[in-house]
Each structure stands twice: as structure tokens, then as C-alpha cells.
Specification:
This protein has five helices and 16 strands. It is an alpha+beta fold. The chain has one domain: 2,3-Dihydroxybiphenyl 1,2-Dioxygenase, domain 1.
Amino acid sequence: MNALRGIHHVSALTANAKDNLYFYTTILGMRLVKKTVNQDDTSVYHLFYADERGNPGTDLTFFEIPHAAKTKEGTHSISQTSLRVPNDHSLNYWINRLHEYDVEHGEITTNNGRKTLNFRDFEGQRLQFISDENNIGVPGGTPWEKSPVPRDKGIIGLGPIRLTVPKPTKTHAVLKDVLGFTETSRYELEGTDVVVFSTGDGGNGAEVHVQASIDLPTERPGRGSVHHVAFRVDNEEELRKWVEHIQSLGFINSGFVERYYFRSLYFRESNGILFELATDGPGFEGDESFDTLGENLALPPFFEDQREEIEAKLKPLHTK
């Protein structure tokens, strides 16, 4: 099998699609590239925010779970999602913009040799801007030219994902021995050890940071939590090899899953983190043109005959 190419997407939870749309498009300036439904529960939205065309490695997605309780943060969790920005100077722009919109944020700091800025969305989603100034590895995407954020300051993709787990060596083993990641560095955060793993061409778009946490309670997910992280696979042929590989090792898994915009495999590693392997294609332009991405409710062909029923259950979400 070829090495995994980096982070494909991160999927999180929101209780309010309307406010979520405002935060990620108006404040953060990402493009809504797909307004669709949760394929496992078509009564709720699944929103995809990304660069100008939803290139793999740039997608931050949200399942809407109305009335979801607030997350009780803890271990066994994907505890931070990073968003890449072009350079160190971009962070000065962002700290001013977050202040302007009254978004909770910290200060610009250096983390594992890179400039970062921690912040949270309106539901407490744990986020971080990370500078790509000294990045060598997986290239970023291209911000949408119609974004309210200047293109030279815009988000260019997903950065390192942090996992917080009580038995880190078990997660290390899955990343290295099962998924083929390589340990590249270590640092200390909040008094605990963090081990950095990298795959493919490496860099900000291909890292997982595993933080040890022995004394924290298990996280109770809700609005503001992350559901899963997905890693990039070249194509369907490669994915089917990964399915065989994961099944041969005895992991409980989904098997091959058709998501229409990509093909997937899901499994949980030893600390309960849900991993997905997802193909780079076909992408988001099979049912919408580049110019109209995200404007209408998009349904995979296998749901099209249920459109009237599905639309009747959804609250209108104006995206044009």
C-alpha cells in the first residue's frame, strides 16, 4: 500500500447549522463547498467548509445535532483542530479579526517550532491557527477569492490534529505499525508529553500530535466536539487494500463505504478515537459546478428519490 498522504478532513458536531455557517464563512472566511445531509441520519445537515473547491486536506465538516449538550472535555478525544494560514504575519491579522468579532482566543505563541494562535468557536470548538511560514511538506490549498478574508491571510487547509489519550503508547502503535506514520518530534504541553507523528510528505498538513492525559475524565462529546479525523488515500484501489489490511488485524471496522464525494473506511484505535481513511476523489464538483458549490442542498444519487421527504425535515439554511 502507498503511504497515507496526510489529513483528509475533520468532522465535528454543532447544534446550530445557521450560526455555524455564519462563524465559518463570515468570520473565518472559509467557503461552504457542500451543503448536504448526514448519510447516516438524513434529517440533519452535514456542512463542508474548505478552500475554494474543497481540495483534500482543507475540509472541516460539521454534523448538525440539534439540542446537543455542551461537550464535557476530557481524554479519549480529538482535542484540537489546527487551521493553516500562510505565514507568521497572518496571525497578527487573525488576532485582530477574532477580537473584532468577540471570538474567544489566546495569544500568539510558539508551539513545536511554529507560531500558533488558539481560539474557540461559539460552541467551544477547540481550534488553532498555525503558520505555514516554515512548512515543508504537503502543500496547502487556495482560499476562495470571494471570501471576506483577504486571500493572502486566508485559511489554506487543515493543520496538525491533537489527540488526548490516557494510554498514548497504544495510539502510537496504531499510528506507526498499522497506518505507517513516523515519529518526528516531541514537546511538552500543559505539563504533559506530546509525541508528533507524520505521514506522506509530512509538514503541517500531515501530522497527528498525541498528548498523554492520565488524570482527565473521559470526554463526553456534544456540540463543540470532534467526531473523527480522516486521512488521505490515493484512490479506491488503494482504499480496498487498506480495508483488507485493517480487517486482517482484527479491528472492528465499517468496511468499504460509498460516500459519493469520496470512498471511506472507519475504525477505532485502542483509545477509542475514530479514524477514517478517505479517497482524494471524486470530489465535490460531480453534482455542482465550481461557481455554485454549496449553494443548494446536494444529495448523493442514492438519496435523490427521497429529496422531497428529506427537505421537509430540514430547517431552511440560506447559503446563496
